[in-house]
Specification:
The protein is α/β, with parallel strands linked by helices. The chain folds into two domains: 139 residues, Rossmann fold, CATH 3.40.50; 182 residues, Rossmann fold. The protein has 14 helices and twelve strands. A six-stranded parallel β-sheet has the order 3-2-1-4-5-6, with helices on one face. The longest helix has 16 residues. The relative contact order is 0.11.
């Protein structure tokens, strides 16, 4: 591949998937060290890419606001044309995004030949013939355009401002530097992925009683009610940070945490990116496709209940796959992980 001067990476739409794309972004930067690299992303995912040293510019594609409809897209296309990119790499499968890159005058365009868009790609990439983890799915595009894959860890960057904010909030809630801090994330973007609230309450009580841990419940504002119900069920006390942090501050929180326990969610992946010790609880989704990835210190707990995985039945109301994970299962993994950590060793998978 030639030496491009200005590269546009067209991102995907979900927090976890954007995080999974960071090894791809790093590979592109290592291949074109002197290029100006911009990433186009939807507003809700902007924080995932902020502070990333491989990126020169973040361009917001507000498809539900400023860029909604034909006129909005025309404004964005005009803006992209003025930036004079010479290479666009499409991680998103959308035909519309590929067409916008073409109409913006970006002469070379790479991406998967999905949505019948192969005719408008100058570097079409055939989709993989078997399911791949999302990290590998993106890296396959990187390999096809001549990038070397040296590191598959995904990355999330924070600043000292977020670290100070979290240190101050923890101190205000009685959590000091030497405390064993466990962050528990009980939320999830759809109900079947969430572990049972009673189990979270029992687990947190056990961790406080046995280890003297300080526990913080994390989450978005929408998770406040979940956190409140868990706290009400408990005999011990904990701290609720749900709704009190943005993604960068969450990154600082899980970086400070000694352990993170979470369902399959964006916050779990941020914890993996920040190299915390992570226990991930999986039910209907596939760890092989969207689980923790790279060289982090993590363990996935998932039980075989005979259901097809991944399962995207959002109407499921028995949550059998998540109910199959017991409090004892999580405590057993935590005991082993804590023992290895306290001895200064990595937990063996």
């Amino acid at each position: 591949m030639k030496n491009y001067g200005r590269i546009l990476i067209v991102e995907v739409n979900w927090l976890g998937d954007v995080l999974f794309s960071t090894p791809f972004i790093r590979a592109v930067r290592e291949r074109w060290k002197d290029a100006y690299i911009a990433c186009m992303v939807v507003p809700r995912c902007k924080e995932i890419l902020e502070y990333n040293p491989c990126i020169d510019e973040i361009i917001i594609y507000d498809e539900k606001g400023a860029h909604k409809g034909l006129l909005g897209k025309q404004r964005l296309i005009s803006s992209l044309r003025n930036k004079r990119f010479d290479f666009a790499i499409l991680l998103h499968r959308s035909f519309t995004r590929a067409l916008m890159a073409y109409l913006a005058g970006i002469k070379e365009r790479a991406g998967y030949t999905t949505k019948k868009r192969g005719v408008i790609l100058t570097h079409p990439v055939e989709p993989p013939d078997r399911p791949l983890h999302k990290v590998e799915y993106f890296l396959k595009i990187a390999e096809s355009i001549g990038c070397d894959i040296l590191n598959k860890d995904y990355e999330f960057f924070i600043s000292d401002r977020e670290r100070r904010y979290i240190a101050d909030r923890l101190s205000e809630n009685g959590v000091v530097k030497d405390d064993l801090l466990i962050v528990v994330n009980p939320g999830g973007n759809w109900l079947p992925k969430r572990w049972i609230e009673e189990n979270f309450a029992e687990l947190c009580d056990a961790l406080i009683t046995k280890y003297g841990a300080k526990i913080v419940l994390s989450g978005a504002e929408k998770d406040l009610q979940i956190a409140g119900r868990i706290k009400k069920r408990m005999n011990q006390n904990l701290v609720i940070f749900a709704g009190k942090t943005n993604l960068k501050e969450l990154g600082a929180l899980v970086e400070r945490a000694n352990f993170v326990i979470s369902g399959d969610s964006g916050p779990m992946h941020i914890a993996v990116a920040m190299k915390s010790n992570v226990i991930a609880l999986f039910g209907p989704t596939s760890p092989a496709l969207t689980g923790p990835y790279g060289k982090g210190n993590y363990r996935v707990i998932q039980k075989d209940t005979g259901c097809d995985v991944p399962c995207y039945d959002l109407a499921c109301d028995d949550y059998m796959c998540m109910k199959a994970i017991s409090v004892g299962d999580v405590l057993n993994v935590f005991d082993r992980m804590h023992s290895a950590w306290s001895e200064g060793n990595r937990f063996s998978l």
